[in-house]
TrEMBL record, chains A, B, C, D:
It comes from the Bacteria. Residues 292-377 form the STAS domain. This is Glutaminase. Homotetramer. Substrate binds at S49, N99, E137, N144, Y167, Y219, V237. It catalyses: L-glutamine + H2O = L-glutamate + NH4(+). Its EC number is 3.5.1.2. It comes from Aeromicrobium senzhongii.
């Protein structure tokens, strides 16, 4: 039996990326280190502004929240990413997701190597810089240099040329969607790497970074994004978008065509579809908890998979993993869903898929929904 | 045995509201209709801007998201609540949480009576208007009239004087903290009233309202509020604040002294303490699901309470309620926490409190944490 | 002999107003009460924003500069006339030439009748209000009411509805170009009416009003207007523009077609042509003084007209008037220009015209330019 | 007989600069090359922003008005001199008097040497750069570098570091008040140097520069300055202010103490006093023409000095010069003022001073005011 998740991701890709001439890819990483991807997953691109949340996390880890907050505010600016706009009194950038704030963050971290090491730990592999991209952006960095000199005038940073060099190197790190979804999953998992189990930042840091992504991650479109997609996210002009559902998954999508906001057009559609299909909205009252699959028990000649919480994407996905990891030991399998709260579309479809695949493999499957009519039908 | 929640709320009140000369109150309502309150719970005050999320919900219900979004944007404005600031092209207010947006919302709803009826359903009792407050605000409504005429100039509303009259009546509805926490719990519960079970708005509407509260509810302080408190909220100049944790609880606090933002000083402290004690932050990766207490079963001569999910405030609170509703039928009681994910401070303290109260009542209590050391010790 | 000025004005009109389907008119009034006009001089239209400088003058006369300046600033706003923009601390309108400032001015004056009386004195005839225009603007006054309520919120004015009523009546006063050029000539003449000789405002008041017209009169185009036209001016959406060259003339032009700034397209062209032909630019180093024609004397059998200062439009125009008022008493006439500073194009052309008309009338005319070659040739 | 002008300037200095611990100086240069100065006239200081009008003139001369206007607007910005504010679409600085505009101007001119040569011609002597000031400003040029990089991002200039280097060298040119009043007098004289008679810029260029000084020269205080002082002016942070009355004089004042706008406090007072005493306001209807003293003639045994125009400062000053250049050839002297228009305070005082000095020198002096009572009494 195979997990249907890759097929689902393929379908998302097919629906959203109808123009074959452009590469497109999608990847998700759950906080218990399950990885799925579809599309041009080998395609490398530069991380660009998607580096900002991680650099901000690193700055908080190294200097503490207060010291960072003294230099960089966390308020949405309602402005485009490259707006020349600082607090008129203090020179503080409005938030770390706009360029001014990211350059200030680079100044606080102090060296590109420090960031590259941190980003590599997050991705779980040594990330490298795309020299050609870096050179070309450094040649046309007038707007970032303007911001940096302004920050230096307000004594937010010391060396503006150095800070821009660092920031542009940071932006030129080369990644693919699986790197990004892994990095995002660390934020989803409260700062602990799902694979290594290493704590890369305090839980409080992850919470603060996600909060800032929620209000400031999508620039002048932050409110609409949160209302309609509901996933803290960050886009980059290379065509990638990362999203994080706390306690659930990190997501990354990629497709180079950009809209007026400098955000991947296809990427936005894929994020919207994931959010809507999977009930991933942050404000969803039935957002599943971590322990969605409660237990597996063998009663007499039946293997019973007991699902609790809401039957959303992540609980269905975890059912599949359990089925693969601990295949039924009896001929009869029971999917016990009587304690499940809400049943979402995608959850229902995936559970039925599990049922039919088990039947294909020769098992007899029964769904137990207690006194209620079977909600999978 | 009594629930320790009222005592906890009393402690929050004592810690935050040290000046006895001012009234202060706090109330929470869970989505399964459990009510707790402390302080001056009988104190009535006007709802003021806390009416805005509910009016916005009503407008979406009546006209649909698209029609409302055409007239009122959902972007944080970074501005004070009474700023004269509309989109310079279209005249659209930045969001429905600032006065311009709330007056536009009133114009869309069309009559104060319609709103009063909706608000009364949310509160579960007939709300009345404070005539004296209304009269006094109508006498000094120049800024709101300015906004309303401007909206009329942009054809966002038709009758500016009527819209301001409606809006000020709406603001003058008289409530107490229990009304407000009940109203907030409907948003937490995806639009269904926890008591009556009546659906008062679509789940999608509740999700959109909460999203807008998250980014725009605390005016020019929205980013900092979300980063540090992490609860979608809305304050009013009467000294109240409502907060909503989706899938969990509605909260309301009250104390009249205001800070520079026009927000209750003590109220903000109470919300911060609740968020931090209860792990209520929206970005908390371990935010509990709805079905935190999995089951109660009687094995031989033991009553076993099986907790799942994370042991946070809401799961501990639900344990208490189950203990009160279905008191143990055996002398020995087992608290089964081996399937619990994370154990928060408040959860641990409340579970231990449950244990000692059971023991006071003559039961023998055993905590079962599986192979692990008992995490309650 | 006739003055060539009307013919010149006709030529300006022909050059600028090539579309015959629209009315167009032009009028000038010198500070020694000489009147010239061309085009549709009988056409009545409403004074609109051209009333603002005069209302501002009246407010200064009645309350004093300090009291008015306390309520209304004099800084260019770089904004369109109807922008909702007041000082964020004090609520002071940026200047009296934008609507906010004009409504505040109306509030300071206190009654429309007071203004109407003042305006009538300036025009030299009883001005009447166009009821239909007033009614129609009052019906669609949302933007002005918004401004007025905002001013009331800041306690700049008391009664916003009354102030807008007053302001719109003021704007609806019906005038023609000759009324306007006469009104403008009072400002040019330091506050004294050229015809009646009555002082209608202090010289200091006229100076202040002209200063504000220079920096704020043409809205967001003030700098370009001053650089290229160089005449303190004020436009109205009815299609009129008034201009004032201190110590020289009041000018008024009219043609209803408006540009993007709400200013008469043909009117702007006429003002530009007048400025350039007549050397009227405020920064022109050779701007003529009042006593351009020094004297007429009869030496033996010659009548000598002695011109001093620069030979610009106004000195040439005054030569013509002197020739008409005191026709030569001898057969030979001498135009003595040896003390003249600069000779402008229009001055040269008009002086030659005077010479040829005198010759047509049978006089022998000699130009005396001292040792220099005759600069009229 | 000596001119009383130096004594008058001394009095202005005494009245305004009461704190002896600070240097102060004042100088005026008429368009017919008469020079007067008082105070610390030898004191050198850097030209700073007072270089801006001259750099702008040079750019117009070299590239033409259109090309310069394409890159730099002429609208008042209502902002402080160092505001980071460009047109959001085009990146055009609002005007050439703020730093952004001045750096753009430097970029258009292309080399500091070209400007230094031009400035030296204007001053009539080789100006040198203060190396120490330049070095120190270059060390702390973050704000200017920010502006320059921003201009480069918008392709207003090519090389931002070069442009700032040029601009700061330009600002570091060392001058005294007499240099500045001479430079200003070229603008007053329509572009022709009063001493050398060389045309250094087209009259049209001088007119455009003066217009921009009038609306933008005094930063966020432009409207108030024009209303109350009425002299196109430009201040520098070194404590100097230059002023120009077209067709009359160039003025320069100096005193290092600065107000909140970065403008010399004592300097502003001196400019105000000059304007008010001398009737120098641009909007003064009686602003004198160039040919204020009409002629000197000897009738029988009387030397008659015939004054025309208004008897203001400049005509009285020219009377003195004529008396010094062509001392009376007869015992009896007549001051013929019957053709004079208005008689200002300062004009009356200076004419009486002339009378009493002539009497001290043994002449008999008679004032002839035609039929009128002698207006000098």
């Amino acid at each position: 039996m195979r997990s249907p998740v890759p097929e689902y991701l393929d379908a998302v890709l097919r629906d959203c990326a109808q123009d074959d001439s452009e590469p497109a890819a999608i990847a998700i990483t759950t906080i218990d280190d399950s990885h799925h991807a579809a599309g041009d997953v080998e395609q490398r691109f530069t991380i660009q502004s998607m580096s900002k949340p991680f650099a901000y996390a690193l700055a908080i880890e190294r200097l503490g929240w207060e010291a960072v907050h003294d230099k960089i505010d966390v308020e949405p600016s309602g402005e485009a990413f490259n707006e020349i706009s600082l607090d008129s009194e203090t020179g503080r950038p409005h938030n770390p997701m706009i360029n001014a704030g990211a350059i200030a963050t680079a100044g606080l971290i102090g060296s590109f190597e420090t960031f590259a090491e941190f980003a590599s730990k997050l991705a779980g592999r040594e990330l490298e810089m795309d020299e050609a991209v870096f050179e070309s952006e450094m040649d046309d960095a007038h707007r970032n240099l303007a911001l940096a000199h302004l920050l230096a005038a307000y004594e937010i940073i010391d060396d503006p040329v150095e800070a821009v060099d660092h920031y542009l190197r940071q932006c030129a790190l080369s990644v693919d969607v699986r790197d990004l979804s892994t990095m995002a999953s660390v934020l989803a998992n409260g700062g602990v790497h799902p694979d290594s189990g290493e704590r890369l930042m305090a839980e409080q840091t992850a919470i603060q970074v996600l909060s800032v992504m929620a209000t400031c991650g999508m620039y002048d479109d932050a409110g609409d994004w949160l209302a309609s997609v509901g996933i803290p996210a960050k886009s980059g002009v290379s065509g990638g978008i990362i999203g994080v559902l706390p306690g659930q998954v990190g997501v990354a999508v990629f497709s180079p065509g950009l809209d007026d906001h400098g955000t991947s057009t296809v990427g936005v559609q894929m994020m919207r579809k994931l959010s809507s299909d999977m009930g991933m909205h942050l404000m969803n009252p039935g957002r599943p908890s971590r322990s969605a699959l409660a237990e597996v028990r063998v009663d007499d000649d039946e293997t019973v998979y007991v699902l609790t919480g809401d039957l959303l994407f992540s609980s269905a996905e975890s059912l599949f993993r359990r089925l693969l990891a601990e295949p039924p030991e009896t001929e009869t399998v029971v999917l016990e869903i009587s304690r499940v709260g809400e049943v979402s579309d995608v959850g229902r479809r995936m559970a039925l898929e599990a049922k039919s695949r088990l039947e294909e493999d020769g098992f007899t499957v029964r769904v137990n929904d207690g006194d209620e009519t079977n909600r999978l039908d």
